[in-house]
Specification:
13 helices, alpha/beta, Aspartate Aminotransferase, domain 2, transaminase activity, 2 domains, Aspartate Aminotransferase, domain 1, Aminotrans_3, 5-stranded antiparallel β-sheet, aminotransferase, 422 residues, binds 4'-deoxy-4'-aminopyridoxal-5'-phosphate, 16 strands, 7-stranded mixed β-sheet
Length: 422
Protein backbone atom coordinates (compact mmCIF):
# COMPACT_ATOMS: atom_id res chain seq x y z
CA UNK A 1 0.00 0.00 0.00
CA UNK A 2 1.24 3.48 -0.91
CA UNK A 3 1.08 5.58 2.22
CA UNK A 4 0.92 9.37 2.33
CA UNK A 5 4.45 10.77 3.01
CA UNK A 6 3.59 11.75 6.60
CA UNK A 7 2.40 8.27 7.55
CA UNK A 8 5.23 6.56 5.67
CA UNK A 9 7.72 8.60 7.73
CA UNK A 10 6.02 7.57 10.99
CA UNK A 11 6.07 3.90 9.94
CA UNK A 12 9.80 4.18 9.22
CA UNK A 13 10.43 5.86 12.60
CA UNK A 14 8.44 3.13 14.37
CA UNK A 15 10.48 0.41 12.71
CA UNK A 16 13.69 2.18 13.65
CA UNK A 17 12.73 3.09 17.22
CA UNK A 18 10.43 0.22 18.30
CA UNK A 19 11.91 -2.67 16.34
CA UNK A 20 10.33 -5.59 14.49
CA UNK A 21 7.85 -7.10 16.97
CA UNK A 22 5.18 -4.39 16.86
CA UNK A 23 2.22 -4.67 14.46
CA UNK A 24 -0.04 -1.91 13.16
CA UNK A 25 -3.73 -2.22 12.38
CA UNK A 26 -4.91 -1.75 8.78
CA UNK A 27 -3.32 -1.83 5.33
CA UNK A 28 -3.11 1.94 5.63
CA UNK A 29 -2.21 2.58 9.29
CA UNK A 30 -4.22 5.09 11.25
CA UNK A 31 -2.53 8.10 12.85
CA UNK A 32 -4.77 9.13 15.73
CA UNK A 33 -4.37 12.28 17.76
CA UNK A 34 -7.54 12.71 19.83
CA UNK A 35 -10.50 10.86 21.29
CA UNK A 36 -13.85 11.89 22.72
CA UNK A 37 -16.75 9.58 23.62
CA UNK A 38 -17.15 7.06 20.79
CA UNK A 39 -15.11 9.16 18.35
CA UNK A 40 -11.45 9.10 17.45
CA UNK A 41 -9.80 11.72 15.25
CA UNK A 42 -6.83 11.36 12.94
CA UNK A 43 -4.09 13.88 12.29
CA UNK A 44 -6.03 15.37 9.38
CA UNK A 45 -9.08 15.89 11.60
CA UNK A 46 -11.15 13.03 10.13
CA UNK A 47 -13.55 11.45 12.64
CA UNK A 48 -13.80 7.67 13.12
CA UNK A 49 -16.68 5.94 14.87
CA UNK A 50 -14.95 3.71 17.40
CA UNK A 51 -16.72 0.36 17.34
CA UNK A 52 -13.68 -1.53 18.58
CA UNK A 53 -11.97 -0.14 21.65
CA UNK A 54 -13.19 -1.69 24.87
CA UNK A 55 -10.51 -0.06 27.03
CA UNK A 56 -12.13 3.36 26.74
CA UNK A 57 -15.23 1.61 27.97
CA UNK A 58 -17.01 4.69 29.36
CA UNK A 59 -15.95 6.71 26.31
CA UNK A 60 -12.62 8.16 25.27
CA UNK A 61 -11.22 10.76 27.66
CA UNK A 62 -14.36 10.82 29.83
CA UNK A 63 -14.11 14.19 31.67
CA UNK A 64 -15.11 12.76 35.05
CA UNK A 65 -12.45 10.04 34.83
CA UNK A 66 -9.80 12.48 33.62
CA UNK A 67 -10.67 14.90 36.44
CA UNK A 68 -10.40 12.17 39.12
CA UNK A 69 -7.05 11.02 37.69
CA UNK A 70 -5.63 14.55 37.53
CA UNK A 71 -6.91 15.52 40.99
CA UNK A 72 -5.30 12.49 42.64
CA UNK A 73 -2.07 12.95 40.68
CA UNK A 74 -1.84 16.43 42.16
CA UNK A 75 -2.27 15.25 45.76
CA UNK A 76 -0.60 11.89 46.36
CA UNK A 77 0.64 9.42 43.77
CA UNK A 78 2.46 6.69 45.62
CA UNK A 79 2.16 2.96 46.21
CA UNK A 80 0.61 0.35 48.49
CA UNK A 81 3.34 0.10 51.13
CA UNK A 82 1.90 3.12 52.89
CA UNK A 83 -1.52 3.25 54.46
CA UNK A 84 -3.87 5.02 52.08
CA UNK A 85 -7.67 5.08 51.91
CA UNK A 86 -7.76 5.03 48.11
CA UNK A 87 -6.78 1.40 47.58
CA UNK A 88 -9.06 0.25 50.39
CA UNK A 89 -12.06 2.23 49.20
CA UNK A 90 -11.66 0.85 45.70
CA UNK A 91 -10.98 -2.74 46.81
CA UNK A 92 -14.08 -2.74 49.02
CA UNK A 93 -16.19 -1.27 46.25
CA UNK A 94 -14.91 -3.77 43.70
CA UNK A 95 -15.46 -6.71 46.05
CA UNK A 96 -19.03 -5.54 46.63
CA UNK A 97 -19.71 -6.15 42.90
CA UNK A 98 -18.57 -9.79 43.22
CA UNK A 99 -20.08 -12.86 44.94
CA UNK A 100 -19.27 -12.76 48.66
CA UNK A 101 -17.00 -15.83 48.43
CA UNK A 102 -14.50 -13.63 46.57
CA UNK A 103 -13.00 -11.77 49.48
CA UNK A 104 -9.67 -10.25 48.46
CA UNK A 105 -8.56 -7.90 45.70
CA UNK A 106 -4.96 -7.47 44.54
CA UNK A 107 -3.75 -4.92 42.01
CA UNK A 108 -1.48 -5.03 38.99
CA UNK A 109 -0.92 -2.76 36.00
CA UNK A 110 -1.89 -5.16 33.21
CA UNK A 111 -4.15 -8.11 32.59
CA UNK A 112 -1.08 -10.20 31.81
CA UNK A 113 0.33 -9.55 35.27
CA UNK A 114 -3.04 -10.41 36.81
CA UNK A 115 -3.06 -13.77 35.01
CA UNK A 116 0.58 -14.38 35.87
CA UNK A 117 -0.15 -13.73 39.54
CA UNK A 118 -3.23 -15.98 39.33
CA UNK A 119 -1.06 -18.78 37.99
CA UNK A 120 1.52 -18.39 40.76
CA UNK A 121 -1.23 -18.47 43.37
CA UNK A 122 -2.93 -21.46 41.73
CA UNK A 123 0.33 -23.41 41.66
CA UNK A 124 0.89 -22.75 45.35
CA UNK A 125 -2.70 -23.64 46.25
CA UNK A 126 -2.94 -26.87 44.23
CA UNK A 127 0.63 -28.10 44.04
CA UNK A 128 -0.14 -28.63 40.35
CA UNK A 129 1.27 -27.19 37.14
CA UNK A 130 -1.21 -28.18 34.42
CA UNK A 131 -3.15 -25.38 32.73
CA UNK A 132 -6.15 -25.82 30.43
CA UNK A 133 -7.18 -23.09 27.96
CA UNK A 134 -9.20 -22.88 24.76
CA UNK A 135 -7.61 -23.43 21.35
CA UNK A 136 -7.34 -19.78 20.39
CA UNK A 137 -7.18 -18.19 23.84
CA UNK A 138 -5.16 -15.08 24.61
CA UNK A 139 -4.27 -14.37 28.24
CA UNK A 140 -1.23 -12.10 27.97
CA UNK A 141 2.42 -11.39 27.37
CA UNK A 142 4.55 -12.60 30.28
CA UNK A 143 6.67 -15.71 29.78
CA UNK A 144 4.37 -17.95 31.81
CA UNK A 145 1.14 -16.50 30.38
CA UNK A 146 2.33 -16.51 26.75
CA UNK A 147 2.89 -20.26 27.28
CA UNK A 148 -0.88 -20.64 27.65
CA UNK A 149 -1.94 -18.12 24.98
CA UNK A 150 -2.28 -20.25 21.83
CA UNK A 151 -3.59 -17.32 19.76
CA UNK A 152 -0.01 -16.00 19.71
CA UNK A 153 0.57 -18.64 17.04
CA UNK A 154 3.05 -21.35 16.26
CA UNK A 155 6.01 -18.99 16.81
CA UNK A 156 5.23 -18.88 20.54
CA UNK A 157 5.30 -22.49 21.80
CA UNK A 158 2.81 -23.67 24.41
CA UNK A 159 4.22 -24.98 27.67
CA UNK A 160 4.55 -28.75 28.07
CA UNK A 161 2.14 -28.37 31.01
CA UNK A 162 -0.55 -26.71 28.84
CA UNK A 163 -3.52 -28.42 27.17
CA UNK A 164 -6.04 -26.81 24.84
CA UNK A 165 -9.73 -27.56 24.40
CA UNK A 166 -12.03 -26.47 21.54
CA UNK A 167 -13.96 -23.24 21.92
CA UNK A 168 -17.47 -23.79 23.29
CA UNK A 169 -18.90 -23.84 19.80
CA UNK A 170 -21.91 -26.04 19.06
CA UNK A 171 -20.48 -26.63 15.57
CA UNK A 172 -17.47 -28.33 17.19
CA UNK A 173 -18.94 -29.81 20.37
CA UNK A 174 -22.51 -30.67 19.44
CA UNK A 175 -25.76 -29.09 20.60
CA UNK A 176 -25.18 -29.61 24.34
CA UNK A 177 -22.29 -27.14 24.60
CA UNK A 178 -22.01 -27.48 28.39
CA UNK A 179 -21.61 -31.25 28.30
CA UNK A 180 -19.32 -31.10 25.26
CA UNK A 181 -17.07 -28.45 26.78
CA UNK A 182 -16.87 -30.30 30.11
CA UNK A 183 -15.98 -33.52 28.26
CA UNK A 184 -13.18 -31.70 26.44
CA UNK A 185 -11.88 -30.28 29.74
CA UNK A 186 -12.05 -33.76 31.29
CA UNK A 187 -10.09 -35.21 28.36
CA UNK A 188 -7.45 -32.50 28.88
CA UNK A 189 -7.29 -33.32 32.60
CA UNK A 190 -6.87 -37.02 31.79
CA UNK A 191 -4.12 -36.27 29.32
CA UNK A 192 -2.25 -34.10 31.85
CA UNK A 193 -2.49 -36.88 34.44
CA UNK A 194 -1.29 -39.48 31.93
CA UNK A 195 1.82 -37.32 31.49
CA UNK A 196 2.34 -37.08 35.23
CA UNK A 197 1.21 -33.46 35.39
CA UNK A 198 -1.17 -32.47 38.18
CA UNK A 199 -3.91 -30.06 36.99
CA UNK A 200 -3.61 -26.56 38.39
CA UNK A 201 -6.20 -24.41 36.62
CA UNK A 202 -8.78 -24.03 33.91
CA UNK A 203 -8.60 -20.44 32.74
CA UNK A 204 -11.07 -18.97 30.27
CA UNK A 205 -12.19 -15.61 28.98
CA UNK A 206 -15.87 -15.91 29.92
CA UNK A 207 -16.99 -14.58 26.50
CA UNK A 208 -14.21 -16.40 24.60
CA UNK A 209 -13.27 -13.26 22.67
CA UNK A 210 -10.23 -14.43 20.75
CA UNK A 211 -11.91 -17.74 19.93
CA UNK A 212 -14.58 -15.75 18.10
CA UNK A 213 -17.12 -14.79 20.85
CA UNK A 214 -18.96 -17.72 22.45
CA UNK A 215 -21.25 -16.64 25.26
CA UNK A 216 -24.36 -18.77 24.88
CA UNK A 217 -26.19 -20.56 26.19
CA UNK A 218 -25.64 -18.90 29.58
CA UNK A 219 -24.71 -21.56 32.10
CA UNK A 220 -22.65 -23.77 29.79
CA UNK A 221 -19.46 -23.23 31.81
CA UNK A 222 -20.74 -24.83 35.02
CA UNK A 223 -19.99 -28.51 34.20
CA UNK A 224 -16.43 -27.71 33.09
CA UNK A 225 -15.82 -25.76 36.30
CA UNK A 226 -17.03 -28.78 38.27
CA UNK A 227 -14.65 -31.02 36.29
CA UNK A 228 -11.52 -28.96 37.00
CA UNK A 229 -12.43 -28.71 40.69
CA UNK A 230 -13.02 -32.46 40.93
CA UNK A 231 -9.47 -32.88 39.57
CA UNK A 232 -8.07 -30.62 42.31
CA UNK A 233 -7.60 -27.60 40.05
CA UNK A 234 -8.96 -24.07 40.25
CA UNK A 235 -11.21 -22.11 37.93
CA UNK A 236 -9.87 -18.71 36.86
CA UNK A 237 -12.27 -16.36 35.05
CA UNK A 238 -10.40 -13.96 32.80
CA UNK A 239 -12.71 -10.94 32.83
CA UNK A 240 -10.28 -8.64 31.03
CA UNK A 241 -12.64 -8.53 28.02
CA UNK A 242 -16.13 -9.22 29.40
CA UNK A 243 -15.76 -7.43 32.73
CA UNK A 244 -17.12 -4.07 33.89
CA UNK A 245 -20.51 -4.44 32.25
CA UNK A 246 -19.77 -5.29 28.65
CA UNK A 247 -22.08 -8.30 28.54
CA UNK A 248 -25.04 -6.14 29.56
CA UNK A 249 -25.92 -8.80 32.17
CA UNK A 250 -24.35 -7.46 35.35
CA UNK A 251 -20.71 -6.54 35.82
CA UNK A 252 -19.06 -9.93 35.21
CA UNK A 253 -19.25 -12.48 32.43
CA UNK A 254 -18.91 -15.46 34.76
CA UNK A 255 -22.16 -14.54 36.54
CA UNK A 256 -24.15 -15.45 33.40
CA UNK A 257 -22.90 -18.99 33.87
CA UNK A 258 -23.99 -19.30 37.50
CA UNK A 259 -20.45 -20.09 38.65
CA UNK A 260 -18.28 -18.46 41.31
CA UNK A 261 -14.64 -18.57 40.16
CA UNK A 262 -11.69 -19.19 42.46
CA UNK A 263 -9.97 -16.17 40.94
CA UNK A 264 -11.05 -13.40 38.59
CA UNK A 265 -8.56 -11.41 36.54
CA UNK A 266 -9.40 -7.86 35.50
CA UNK A 267 -7.88 -5.24 33.23
CA UNK A 268 -8.51 -3.21 30.09
CA UNK A 269 -11.69 -1.18 30.86
CA UNK A 270 -10.94 -0.95 34.59
CA UNK A 271 -9.19 2.43 34.23
CA UNK A 272 -10.69 3.57 30.91
CA UNK A 273 -7.15 3.88 29.52
CA UNK A 274 -5.12 4.36 32.70
CA UNK A 275 -3.07 1.15 33.20
CA UNK A 276 -4.82 -0.52 36.12
CA UNK A 277 -5.65 -4.22 36.45
CA UNK A 278 -6.16 -6.72 39.21
CA UNK A 279 -7.08 -10.08 40.62
CA UNK A 280 -10.01 -10.92 42.89
CA UNK A 281 -9.95 -14.23 44.70
CA UNK A 282 -11.30 -16.54 47.34
CA UNK A 283 -9.28 -16.02 50.53
CA UNK A 284 -8.62 -19.75 50.90
CA UNK A 285 -6.75 -20.03 47.59
CA UNK A 286 -4.12 -17.52 48.62
CA UNK A 287 -3.44 -18.89 52.11
CA UNK A 288 -0.44 -20.95 50.97
CA UNK A 289 1.00 -18.26 48.69
CA UNK A 290 0.46 -15.56 51.34
CA UNK A 291 2.30 -17.58 53.96
CA UNK A 292 5.39 -17.97 51.79
CA UNK A 293 5.48 -15.09 49.31
CA UNK A 294 5.31 -11.33 49.61
CA UNK A 295 3.43 -9.34 46.99
CA UNK A 296 4.37 -5.85 45.98
CA UNK A 297 3.76 -4.25 42.62
CA UNK A 298 5.26 -0.77 42.40
CA UNK A 299 2.49 0.77 40.32
CA UNK A 300 -0.29 -1.75 40.98
CA UNK A 301 -2.92 -0.18 43.20
CA UNK A 302 -1.19 3.20 43.28
CA UNK A 303 -3.33 6.09 44.44
CA UNK A 304 -3.87 7.55 40.97
CA UNK A 305 -4.86 4.16 39.54
CA UNK A 306 -7.39 3.65 42.31
CA UNK A 307 -8.91 7.12 41.98
CA UNK A 308 -9.23 6.61 38.23
CA UNK A 309 -10.75 3.14 38.58
CA UNK A 310 -13.20 4.47 41.17
CA UNK A 311 -14.34 7.17 38.76
CA UNK A 312 -14.92 4.50 36.10
CA UNK A 313 -17.23 2.64 38.49
CA UNK A 314 -19.05 5.92 39.20
CA UNK A 315 -19.63 6.54 35.50
CA UNK A 316 -20.82 2.97 34.85
CA UNK A 317 -23.42 3.48 37.59
CA UNK A 318 -24.40 7.08 36.87
CA UNK A 319 -24.78 6.58 33.14
CA UNK A 320 -26.52 3.21 33.40
CA UNK A 321 -23.94 1.64 31.11
CA UNK A 322 -24.73 -2.00 31.90
CA UNK A 323 -28.35 -1.52 30.83
CA UNK A 324 -27.14 0.48 27.83
CA UNK A 325 -24.86 -2.37 26.83
CA UNK A 326 -27.76 -4.80 27.06
CA UNK A 327 -30.26 -2.62 25.17
CA UNK A 328 -28.03 -1.12 22.49
CA UNK A 329 -26.31 -4.49 22.10
CA UNK A 330 -29.68 -6.10 21.32
CA UNK A 331 -30.48 -3.38 18.76
CA UNK A 332 -27.05 -3.88 17.23
CA UNK A 333 -27.51 -7.64 16.92
CA UNK A 334 -30.98 -7.21 15.37
CA UNK A 335 -29.57 -4.71 12.90
CA UNK A 336 -26.77 -7.04 11.82
CA UNK A 337 -29.23 -9.91 11.40
CA UNK A 338 -31.37 -7.62 9.26
CA UNK A 339 -28.40 -6.67 7.10
CA UNK A 340 -27.51 -10.35 6.68
CA UNK A 341 -30.69 -10.77 4.63
CA UNK A 342 -29.10 -8.57 1.93
CA UNK A 343 -25.52 -9.82 2.26
CA UNK A 344 -24.81 -13.54 2.08
CA UNK A 345 -21.29 -13.01 3.45
CA UNK A 346 -22.74 -12.18 6.88
CA UNK A 347 -22.89 -15.64 8.42
CA UNK A 348 -23.51 -16.60 12.04
CA UNK A 349 -23.67 -13.77 14.54
CA UNK A 350 -22.79 -14.35 18.19
CA UNK A 351 -23.44 -11.49 20.54
CA UNK A 352 -23.66 -10.65 24.22
CA UNK A 353 -24.30 -7.06 25.23
CA UNK A 354 -21.94 -4.80 23.28
CA UNK A 355 -19.64 -7.64 22.25
CA UNK A 356 -20.51 -8.99 18.82
CA UNK A 357 -18.75 -11.60 16.72
CA UNK A 358 -19.96 -11.65 13.11
CA UNK A 359 -18.74 -14.55 10.96
CA UNK A 360 -17.74 -13.63 7.40
CA UNK A 361 -18.31 -16.47 4.96
CA UNK A 362 -18.23 -17.21 1.26
CA UNK A 363 -20.44 -20.10 0.19
CA UNK A 364 -20.80 -20.88 3.88
CA UNK A 365 -17.03 -21.25 4.48
CA UNK A 366 -14.96 -18.88 6.69
CA UNK A 367 -13.42 -16.10 4.60
CA UNK A 368 -10.68 -14.28 6.50
CA UNK A 369 -9.51 -12.40 3.40
CA UNK A 370 -12.97 -10.91 2.93
CA UNK A 371 -13.17 -10.08 6.65
CA UNK A 372 -9.89 -8.20 6.25
CA UNK A 373 -11.25 -6.28 3.26
CA UNK A 374 -14.33 -5.34 5.27
CA UNK A 375 -12.22 -4.14 8.23
CA UNK A 376 -10.09 -2.02 5.88
CA UNK A 377 -13.14 -0.82 3.94
CA UNK A 378 -14.79 0.35 7.15
CA UNK A 379 -11.62 2.14 8.17
CA UNK A 380 -11.75 4.08 4.90
CA UNK A 381 -15.42 4.79 5.62
CA UNK A 382 -14.57 6.17 9.07
CA UNK A 383 -15.53 3.19 11.24
CA UNK A 384 -13.14 1.14 13.38
CA UNK A 385 -13.52 -2.59 14.03
CA UNK A 386 -11.20 -5.60 13.87
CA UNK A 387 -11.29 -9.32 13.09
CA UNK A 388 -10.64 -12.28 15.37
CA UNK A 389 -11.15 -16.03 15.68
CA UNK A 390 -8.83 -18.93 14.82
CA UNK A 391 -8.62 -17.99 11.13
CA UNK A 392 -9.50 -14.30 11.48
CA UNK A 393 -12.91 -14.45 9.78
CA UNK A 394 -14.94 -13.08 12.71
CA UNK A 395 -15.63 -9.36 12.77
CA UNK A 396 -14.89 -8.19 16.31
CA UNK A 397 -17.35 -5.46 17.21
CA UNK A 398 -16.81 -4.10 20.69
CA UNK A 399 -17.49 -0.37 21.05
CA UNK A 400 -17.27 1.80 24.16
CA UNK A 401 -20.33 1.12 26.33
CA UNK A 402 -21.64 4.66 25.70
CA UNK A 403 -22.55 3.57 22.16
CA UNK A 404 -26.10 4.69 21.27
CA UNK A 405 -28.82 3.50 18.90
CA UNK A 406 -27.87 6.35 16.54
CA UNK A 407 -24.29 5.06 16.48
CA UNK A 408 -25.59 1.58 15.64
CA UNK A 409 -27.60 3.03 12.75
CA UNK A 410 -24.53 4.85 11.47
CA UNK A 411 -22.42 1.69 11.73
CA UNK A 412 -24.99 -0.39 9.83
CA UNK A 413 -25.32 2.23 7.09
CA UNK A 414 -21.56 2.34 6.58
CA UNK A 415 -21.18 -1.46 6.72
CA UNK A 416 -23.95 -1.80 4.15
CA UNK A 417 -22.09 0.68 1.92
CA UNK A 418 -18.80 -1.18 2.26
CA UNK A 419 -20.43 -4.56 1.53
CA UNK A 420 -22.13 -3.17 -1.56
CA UNK A 421 -18.83 -1.82 -2.86
CA UNK A 422 -16.80 -5.01 -2.24
N1 LIG B 1 -6.71 -11.58 28.96
C1 LIG B 1 -7.47 -11.28 27.90
C2 LIG B 1 -8.72 -12.06 27.68
C3 LIG B 1 -7.09 -10.25 27.03
O1 LIG B 1 -7.85 -9.95 25.99
C4 LIG B 1 -5.89 -9.54 27.29
C5 LIG B 1 -5.42 -8.41 26.39
N2 LIG B 1 -5.83 -8.45 25.08
C6 LIG B 1 -5.13 -9.91 28.40
C7 LIG B 1 -5.56 -10.92 29.22
C8 LIG B 1 -3.81 -9.23 28.70
O2 LIG B 1 -4.01 -7.94 29.16
P1 LIG B 1 -2.84 -6.86 29.02
O3 LIG B 1 -2.66 -6.56 27.58
O4 LIG B 1 -3.36 -5.71 29.83
O5 LIG B 1 -1.62 -7.45 29.64
Amino acid sequence: VDLPPGEAALVARRQAALGPAYRLFYDSPLHLVRGEGVWLYDAAGKAYLDTYNNVASVGHCHPQVVAAMAAQAGVFASHTRYLHDGVLNYAERLLATMPSALGHAMFTCTGSEANDLALRIARAATGGMGVIVTENAYHGVTLSVAEFSPSLGAGVPLGAHVRTVPAPDAAKLGPDVGAGFAAAVQAAIDDLLRHGIKPCALIVDTVFSSDGVFADPAGFLAPAVAAIRAAGGLFIADEVQPGFGRTGAGMWGFARHGVVPDMVSLGKPMGNGYPVAGLVLRPEVIAEFGAKARYFNTFGGNAVAMATAGAVLDVIEQEGLIANSRDVGAVFADGLRGLAKDHACLGELRAVGLFLGQDIVTDGAPDAALAGRIVNGLRAAGVLISATGPVGHVLKIRPPLVFSRAHVALFLERLDGVLRRL
